[in-house]
Task: inverse folding
């Protein structure tokens, strides 16, 4: 496993030369009240690390020392006991004089490494029953308690629950706080671009992909098989179902309805949902309904309350129930004249084989 440099700290694989530092942590009476006993002999610690390096080389375990950018050591964290779906996290020990937030950041990096690099579905860990501070800290993750004995509680934490928690804490988002996710939103996906804002009561499932600088208003729901480009605005009350592909700079007004199954029945699912494409720059008016499987062309515009039942060409205006062609339209949103020129912004267009294109 390589060195990890993230959130302003460095995690590097433990080496034999770290034996004295690790022993100083594990024998510190302020730190070791809630961990297993460690033999204070330095030779035993060296032997343990040498055996660990064999396991590390085989990909069976990863043990890290946490440092600042000047190489000062502050703590450790370890990932071990891997199987096909899970990993265990432990040896989470940090000096009391560690930089503010370093221990928590290292803990989050440990989880992220297990879920993103090891591709695990969940993490396992144990907490001493008397370790009330860590129990309170982990309570916010809503981990599942799966057992206990006289000494410990045993927990599992799913990938989804971890990212719900992480995505509510700005320092753990990519781009160093450039994303804004409201605390009431449930965001399971990690595939969210810089500058995107997600507002109250949105729900985003784990496989959804959302680009940069998007704005998702109140009460938006996004399923797994949804891809959204950059600079997209989705207003309140919109649900995006599996099969939707939304290009850059698209505007979706409040309460637009999408469908993806031509013959829906309760509890009967098609082998594949229909793919609906909303191409670059298109705008869809409020309360419109988009029948699954259509393509809405780039920079086209759908009027409010329309029902779209067929493909919409580029640079065209449609509205009604069912929506019908009402003219050609410019990138700026104004209608073109009969010569396909925009008197508002000055852009000029041509039609070739029935397809409108901007004249550069």
Result:
């Amino acid at each position: 496993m390589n060195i990890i440099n993230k959130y302003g700290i460095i995690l590097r694989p433990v080496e034999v030369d770290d034996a004295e530092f690790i022993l100083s942590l594990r024998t510190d009476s302020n730190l070791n009240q809630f961990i297993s006993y460690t033999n204070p002999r330095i030779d035993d610690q060296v032997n343990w690390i040498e055996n660990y390096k064999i396991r590390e080389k085989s990909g069976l375990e990863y043990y890290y020392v946490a440092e600042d950018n000047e190489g000062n050591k502050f703590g450790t964290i370890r990932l071990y006991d891997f199987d096909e779906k899970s990993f265990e996290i432990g040896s989470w020990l940090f000096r009391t004089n560690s930089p503010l937030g370093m221990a928590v950041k290292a803990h989050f990096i440990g989880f992220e490494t297990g879920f993103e690099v090891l591709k695990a579905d969940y993490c396992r860990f144990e907490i001493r029953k008397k370790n009330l501070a860590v129990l309170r800290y982990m309570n916010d993750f809503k981990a599942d308690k799966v057992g206990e004995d006289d000494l410990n509680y045993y927990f599992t934490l799913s990938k989804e629950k971890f990212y719900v928690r992480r995505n509510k804490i700005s320092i753990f988002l990519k781009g160093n706080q450039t994303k804004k996710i409201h605390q009431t939103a449930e965001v399971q996906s990690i595939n969210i671009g810089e500058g995107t804002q997600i507002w109250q009561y949105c729900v985003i499932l784990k496989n959804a992909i959302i680009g940069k600088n998007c704005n998702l208003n109140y009460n938006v729901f996004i399923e797994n098989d949804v891809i959204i480009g950059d600079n997209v605005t989705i207003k309140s009350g919109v649900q995006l179902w599996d099969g939707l592909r939304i290009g850059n700079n698209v505007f979706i007004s409040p309460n637009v309805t999408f469908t993806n199954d031509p013959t829906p029945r309760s509890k009967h699912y098609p082998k594949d949902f229909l793919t609906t494409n909303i191409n670059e720059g298109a705008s869809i008016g409020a309360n419109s309904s988009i029948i699954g499987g259509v393509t809405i062309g780039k920079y086209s515009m759908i009027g409010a309350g329309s029902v779209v039942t067929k493909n919409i060409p580029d640079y065209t205006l449609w509205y009604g129930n069912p929506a019908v062609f009402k003219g050609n339209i410019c990138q700026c949103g104004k209608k073109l004249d009969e010569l396909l020129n925009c008197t508002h912004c000055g852009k000029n267009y041509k039609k070739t084989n029935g397809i409108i294109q901007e004249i550069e």
In short: The helical segments are 19-26, 42-57, 102-117, 132-139, 159-166. The chain has a mean pLDDT of 92. The chain has five helices and 31 strands. The CA atoms of residues 200 and 218 lie 5 Å apart.
